[in-house]
Design a protein that fits this description.
By secondary structure, this protein is an alpha/beta fold. It has a single domain, classed as Aldolase class I (TIM Barrel). It contains eight helices and eight strands, in the order βββααβαβαβααβαβα. The protein has an eight-stranded mixed sheet with strand order 3-1-2-4-5-6-7-8. Strand 7, helix 7 and strand 8 form a beta-alpha-beta unit. Helix 1 (56-63) packs across helix 3 (88-97) and helix 3 (88-97) runs parallel beside helix 4. It starts with a strand and ends with a helix. Bound molecules: iron/sulfur cluster. Residues 32, 34-36, 39, 41, 44, 81-83, 109 line the site of iron/sulfur cluster. The site of iron/sulfur cluster has 11 residues, from loops.
């Protein structure tokens, strides 16, 4: 036992389409510093009762059930959330102990201090980054926080030359940004050397229904 514990809101097996290559298991972490208006996982804001907590060994045992799929397809484990970088020490310890063949993906908004990203920057095979919007006013209105941490961490990824390991999600956020804003974000990101983008629209109704359902 190394003492690191991961608090999870859920584990989803056998994901094929959404995350990277191969078959993956999504491990969704508790907690997020942002409060996005159309968040699809608002249950991560409050510590669930009972919370699912895993040591590194327990998590490896839990996801090992799909080891054969991971090895055969080049897949692995996706740390998402919530914001998984709030539990960066665990992810680092997991990488050290998990089979080397498993890929480790990170789905993050990067809204954490740089030191958290630095803990895992060399452990992650592929980053899926949801930046919301690069425009400060839009970002703050939508997420409740300023974009400084996100921008600083994006810069760090770019300075490390990791652009080829990053896909950036560029959402169209009804009532908050427009196609033009999104194109402006993309232009800024291209100037930083990023070239892989996932453009999509947020599922507004689904998100609002979910928030109402759990009273968030
Ligand atoms: S970053 Fe993700 S989990 Fe956090 S509030 Fe926004 S949508 Fe929800």
């Amino acid at each position: 036992m190394n003492g690191h514990i991961f608090h999870a809101i859920g584990i989803e097996r056998l994901r094929v389409i959404n995350d990277g290559e191969g078959i993956t298991t999504l491990v969704a972490g508790y907690g997020c510093p942002l409060r996005c208006q159309y968040c699809l996982n608002p249950q991560c804001f409050e510590m669930p009762k009972p919370v699912h907590s895993y040591s590194v060994e327990e998590m490896i045992r839990e996801v090992s059930v799909d080891d054969l799929y991971f090895q055969a397809t080049g897949g692995g484990v996706v740390f998402g959330g919530g914001e998984p970088l709030l539990q960066a020490d665990f992810i680092h310890a997991f990488r050290k102990q998990a089979p080397k063949e498993w890929k480790i993906y990170l789905e993050s908004s990067l809204a954490v201090k740089e030191e958290e990203l630095l803990k895992v920057i060399r452990d992650i095979d592929f980053f899926l980054i949801d930046i919301k919007d690069m425009n400060e006013e839009i970002y703050e209105r939508y997420s409740g926080k300023k974009p400084d941490l996100m921008r600083c961490n994006l810069k760090l990824l770019a300075e490390r030359g990791l652009q080829d390991k990053v896909t950036i999600r560029l959402p169209l956020i009804a009532g908050f940004n427009t196609d033009k804003n999104r194109a402006e974000s993309e232009e800024l990101l291209r100037e930083m050397g990023f070239s892989s983008f996932d453009r999509f629209s947020y599922a507004v109704k689904k998100a609002l229904d979910k928030r109402r359902e759990i009273g968030a």
